[in-house]
Design brief:
By secondary structure, the chain is α+β, with helices and mostly antiparallel strands. Helix content is 46%, strand content 11%. It has a five-stranded mixed β-sheet. Helix 7 packs across helix 8 and helix 7 packs across helix 10. The longest helix has 32 residues. The N and C termini lie far apart (74 Å).
Length: 413
């Protein structure tokens, strides 16, 4: 006789407005649920997700409000992603983007000299030369992977220069970045442990580089800047690894996925591409517009430090909030009814939130913009058009919004 399985676990119905689901990004169908959230519930409570309960903040104004109140909405208490830190089986690796003031202020100030206007000027010729070399190495009218050949290579070279990292090992930076930025790995214990193993590997490698620079005169690279900084010279190994992960992911995933996004996005909107091709003076604005449209990091997380109210919703102390930059950058109340399109001469493209807002705004924003602008400029010099020949493979995650691969051919216009 059949018996009832009294111990069967109840099935929790999927919340269609749980925008943390990885498949939405892997399949590029996140736009509709965010549009519904912005219209009906811009501060929305999700009770059940793979990352636990959270508030989904999806429109522009409430995200700016949260970012403008860092004491009320902490980056440090729960970290900066929806994935929770679990004290019983995780190792905390603090990084300055996930610290509150005053620690955040001192550590950010330590690395910011690497991204000043004078440093941008100093690096621009090198960036242009390397970009030209890569573009000149491409085969015309022959399919290749834009992500690996152009986006990853350009950004990994830049990271190697910023860290004074051994050139022949530069692809390790890409490898570590991919593992560090994948918050989906917390759902699988073997993968979580493998990620931890690679983070230690990364830390050991960089510790050797650090040791080689101790007691040496300061140089323009980030490791030397940390060594010669009061705020960062005495970091323990975990904080050292954490800040390395921040700088690697920040410098790699964001710029690389925007470089891939420009190839994909301009192919999707050929009228706008033609407008840009006819008028290269639009490149600076196009850079901001592509960053807005792509939004290479979908969200940042904050944690409420006390009970409060946000746009009519009662937020409790300890609640976590996902600030969906990817959604705010499509907010029609800010960017107009064509916010889902790339518009290369959009008047307010620079208002995007892809770099964040307030004290945590991306410290390397100028460098990212310059790299993308130079890529577009060098493509224009060669009258190079990127034609996407097949659907890209996308990152299956709600944090890094990007591409694993993208088949393309290049042609002249």
């Amino acid at each position: 006789m059949a018996t009832l399985a009294h111990d069967a676990q109840p099935q929790i119905e999927i919340d269609p407005l749980d925008v943390s689901r990885a498949e939405l990004y892997a399949e590029d169908r996140w736009q509709a649920p965010f549009a519904q959230l912005r219209a009906d519930s811009p501060v929305h409570r999700v009770e059940h997700s793979d990352f636990g309960a959270y508030w989904s903040v999806s429109s522009y104004k409430p995200i700016v409000e949260v970012e403008s109140l860092p004491e009320l909405y902490s980056s440090e208490v729960g970290g900066i992603t929806l994935a929770d830190f679990l004290p019983e089986n995780d190792v905390r690796m603090p990084m300055f983007i996930a610290r509150d003031r005053p620690v955040h202020t001192g550590q950010r100030r330590s690395v910011s000299p690497a991204f000043t206007p004078s440093e941008m000027t100093r690096m621009s010729d090198d960036i242009r030369g390397r970009t030209a070399d890569i573009l000149d190495s491409l085969d015309w009218n022959k399919e290749f992977d834009w992500v690996d050949t152009v986006s990853i290579e350009l950004t990994t070279q830049m990271l190697a220069i910023l860290f004074d990292f051994p050139w022949e090992d530069r692809r390790k930076l890409t490898f570590w970045s991919d593992w560090a930025g994948d918050i989906e790995l917390i759902k699988d214990e073997p993968s979580r442990l493998k990620r931890l193993e690679y983070m230690y590997e990364c830390g050991t490698y960089f510790q050797n580089l650090w040791n080689q620079k101790v007691d040496k005169p300061q140089t323009p690279d980030l490791i030397s800047m940390m060594i010669h900084s009061d705020a960062m010279s005495q970091m323990d190994q975990f904080e050292f690894i954490g800040n390395l992960i921040l700088l690697i992911v920040g410098g790699n995933d964001t710029t690389r996925n925007t470089m891939s996004g420009l190839a994909y996005g301009l192919d999707q909107f050929p009228d706008e591409r033609a407008k840009l091709e006819a008028n290269p003076a639009l490149i600076p604005n196009t850079v901001s517009e592509i960053i807005r449209w792509q939004t290479p990091l979908s969200h940042m997380r904050r944690t409420a430090t006390q009970d409060t109210e946000l746009h009519g919703q009662q937020i409790k102390e300890g609640d976590k909030l996902a600030l969906w930059y990817i959604s705010a950058n499509r907010d029609r109340s800010v960017f107009g009814d064509d916010a889902d399109k790339i518009v290369v001469d959009r008047a307010n493209a620079r208002r995007h939130l892809a770099f964040g807002h307030g004290i945590h705004r991306c410290v390397g924003a100028r460098l990212a913009e310059m790299q993308i602008a130079i890529l577009l400029e060098e493509m224009a010099k060669r009258r190079m058009r990127v034609n996407v020949t097949g659907e890209p493979t996308r990152v299956a995650a709600c944090f890094v919004h990007g591409y694993r691969s993208m088949p393309v051919e290049i042609s002249k216009y």
